[in-house]
């Protein structure tokens, strides 16, 4: 079976680990957000692709939740001493190795998809990592103190500076990559990871060609809620939802994605048990919704969450299929 997942960084990685465990014999492709990507201190940083890469390779810092395990920061301190980069955005030494390698490949003419494949080849990931596009589409955040890159808003202001709008710089000139498009078109199951609905999933779906590919895909599309008990699990994503006027509520997020039969994204929605009360209204909207435990911890529940998402996908049918 071919399973294609749309995913951001940390939530995406936790879900991907569970899925790989739940479906070891299936062909898994992960279409990743690139809206957080940037050139910093002369290197290309891809926060979401790297979170996925490191987690799946088993070399990520599981305690901190991002970057490499056993990291040192000597180079970052030198960069800061030269006034290069962002002093509040640490690039670990091992992590910088990835960014340097990727920058070298890109400068030699590789696409981001090709560079990602080469970086991935170092480890037995068991999944294919695909940036949703090879074009640069940085997410900019419009605030009262000016417009800044998403990572500056997220890391420096800790998402505390009110965001008026998110803007995808260059999106109108961008295009879904042929590989990501094929992964969606040829999938037997499509899953939306429990990732940030605005700046991860929203960004992916906003790339020209993605929505069309999802609309015409033969596979059922099932989303997994990033909200548990009316709260965003780990992190500051609620501020992103507030910016686009969506409540931090599992059913509200599903309604925001919309039913595929009515021009939206979802055939099915897996919500947390704590949020079961909100689900009947989704069935009225045309989304088959079920409630299950959704806390993602590696080595146990994450695989069960992925298995539950696959089981729900087997029960819903795609309107295009
Ligand atoms: P980012 O790119 O690193 O911000 O990561 P993602 O966009 O992939 O995912 C971030 C979101 O994952 C958070 O806003 C949470 O809502 C969600 N999340 C994190 N941990 C869990 C979990 O254990 N269960 C579920 N259902 N969602 C989670
Ligand atoms: Ca991200």
SS element count, helices:
13
Helix content: 25-40%
- Strands ordered across the widest β-sheet: 5-2-1-9-10-13-14
Give the C-alpha Rg: 19 Å
Can you offer a commentary on this structure?
The chain has helices spanning 10-22, 47-57, 74-81, 93-107, 112-120, 150-156, 178-185, 201-206, 210-216, 237-243, 250-257, 280-285, 301-315; strands at 2-7, 27-32, 38-40, 43-45, 128-131, 139-143, 146-149, 163-168, 189-192, 221-224, 227-228, 231-232, 268-272, 288-292. It is globular. The strands form four sheets. It has a seven-stranded parallel β-sheet with strand order 5-2-1-9-10-13-14, sandwiched between helices. Helix 1 (10-22) links the parallel strand 1 and strand 2 (27-32). The chain has a domain at 2-36 and 125-136 and 170-317: CofD-like domains (Rossmann fold, 3-Layer(aba) Sandwich), CATH 3.40.50. It is an alpha/beta fold and 321 residues long. The chain binds guanosine-5'-diphosphate (GDP) and calcium ion (CA).
Keywords:
321 residues; alpha/beta; Rossmann fold; three-stranded antiparallel sheet; 13 helices; globular; binds guanosine-5'-diphosphate; binds calcium ion
Layout: helices, strands, pairs:
Blueprint: E1 2-7, H1 10-22, E2 27-32, E3 38-40, E4 43-45, H2 47-57, H3 74-81, H4 93-107, H5 112-120, E5 128-131, E6 139-143, E7 146-149, H6 150-156, E8 163-168, H7 178-185, E9 189-192, H8 201-206, H9 210-216, E10 221-224, E11 227-228, E12 231-232, H10 237-243, H11 250-257, E13 268-272, H12 280-285, E14 288-292, H13 301-315
Helix pairs in contact: 1-2, 1-13, 4-5, 7-9
Put the structure in a nutshell.
With 321 residues, the chain is an alpha/beta fold. The chain has helices at residues 10-22, 47-57, 74-81, 93-107, 112-120, 150-156, 178-185, 201-206, 210-216, 237-243, 250-257, 280-285, 301-315; strands at residues 2-7, 27-32, 38-40, 43-45, 128-131, 139-143, 146-149, 163-168, 189-192, 221-224, 227-228, 231-232, 268-272, 288-292. The structure holds guanosine-5'-diphosphate and calcium ion.
């Amino acid at each position: 079976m071919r399973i294609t997942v749309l995913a951001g960084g940390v939530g995406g990685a936790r879900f991907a680990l569970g899925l790989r465990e739940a479906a070891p014999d299936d062909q898994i492709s992960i279409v990743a957000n690139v809206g957080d990507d940037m050139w910093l201190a002369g290197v290309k940083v891809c926060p979401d692709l790297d979170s996925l890469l490191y987690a799946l390779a088993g070399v990520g810092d599981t305690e901190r939740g991002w970057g490499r395990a056993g990291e040192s920061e000597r180079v970052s301190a030198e960069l800061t001493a030269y006034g290069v980069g962002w002093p509040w955005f640490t690039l670990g030494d091992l992590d910088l190795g990835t960014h340097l390698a990727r920058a070298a490949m890109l400068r030699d003419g590789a696409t981001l998809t090709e560079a990602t494949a080469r970086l991935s080849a170092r480890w037995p990931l068991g999944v294919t990592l695909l940036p949703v596009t090879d074009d640069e589409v940085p997410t900019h955040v419009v605030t009262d103190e000016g417009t800044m890159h998403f990572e500056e808003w997220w890391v420096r202001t800790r998402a505390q500076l009110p965001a008026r709008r998110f803007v995808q710089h260059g999106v109108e000139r961008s295009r879904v990559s042929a590989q990501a498009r094929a992964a969606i078109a040829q999938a037997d199951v499509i899953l939306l990871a429990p990732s940030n609905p605005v700046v991860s999933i929203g960004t992916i779906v906003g790339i020209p060609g993605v929505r069309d590919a999802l609309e015409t895909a033969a596979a059922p599309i099932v989303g997994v809620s990033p909200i548990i008990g009316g709260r965003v699990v780990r992190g500051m994503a609620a501020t992103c939802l507030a910016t686009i006027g969506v409540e931090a509520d599992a059913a509200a997020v599903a309604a925001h994605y919309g039913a595929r039969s009515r021009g939206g994204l979802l055939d099915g929605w897996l919500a947390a048990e704590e949020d079961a009360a909100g689900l009947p209204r989704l069935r009225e909207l045309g989304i088959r919704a079920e409630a299950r435990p959704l806390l993602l911890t590696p080595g146990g529940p994450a695989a069960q969450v992925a298995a539950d998402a696959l089981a729900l996908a087997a029960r819903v049918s795609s309107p295009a299929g």
